[in-house]
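Report of the visiting student (M.T.), summer placement. My assignment was to run the structure pipeline on a short list of targets and document each run. The first record concerns Cell surface glycoprotein CD200 receptor 1 isoform X2.
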Amino acid sequence: MLCTWRTSDLRLLLTLIVFLVVECISARGQSLNTTSNSSMQQTASVNGSSTDKRQRKLELPAEANASLSVPVDTKAVFDCPSILLTSLVVTTWQIILRDKLSCTRAYRRDRNETKEGNCTDERITWASRPDENLALQIDPVATTHDGFYMCQMVTPDGNFHRGYHLQVLVPPEVTLLQSKNGTAVCRAAAGKPAAQISWNPEGDCVTEQEHWANGTVTVQSTCRWEDHPLSNVSCSVSHVTGNKSLSLELTQGAQTTANLHFLYIIPCIFIVFVIGGSIWLLKNSGCRKCKLKKTEANPGVEEDEMQPYASYTEKNNPLYDTTNKERCRMLQSEVDGIGLDTL
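After the run finished, the structure tokens were exported:
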């Protein structure tokens, strides 16, 4: 019995050993296959990555256009895509402005020469030497420089470009005043783009815009507060270059001011009429007195005028002279007779 148990036990042990050997061999084979597959995958990934890098380098997408806002009278600089200058063949700047011909500035590296066409604005130049920096600059910026600026680069690996939509900003000149009829007027003059005006408190407002040839816009808002007379109002102007707020003390409401003007005008008109009427009455009374005096003085004048005629008649009438002579003789004789009797 003992020998039988030992023999069977040995058989079981040999079976276990064979099974373990087979398992080890199969596991080793799987590990080898896995290692080879992983190495192949790594090699493929390395090759694929290098291929992708080359493909990306050759098929680099062109950079999108950008919007650029620059305040007026400042300096603007436009950069080209970041490319090694050693791989550069030709760089061209294309400038498209409003109501003008397209301007081009080009640089050829192999010859180290620059060319330009239809470029008349001296404020648009290379930022520095093209063989060192291909950027373009505008100094100073004006409202006429609104437009599109694009840098095009030719290299052995492909063509690249970058564009800029330039918008020149002009801050408006803000004023706030009270008009003659009592309304408040807020004005944002010659701004670019157009400003926006708001009031505090809100009233009955009318806003108007006036567009100028250089692209600027003047915005004017006129407000009145008839239902609620106010002593102080404020005007706020919103603009991309900065916001401004102004306050104004209203002397009086529009209706009160109009009433005051009316009250001032009526007394002045009344005084003018009184003075004019007084002068007219005095003049008429003086004329009447003068006429009466002239009427009373006329008879004396007629008598005086008749006296020369009477004297003339007496002097020139012969009958009148004869009568006078006879009277004179008679008187003389009477005098002589009286004198003799007296003696």
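Residues 1-8, 31-62, 300-310 have pLDDT under 50 and may be disordered. The radius of gyration is 61 Å. I thank the supervising group for their guidance throughout the placement.
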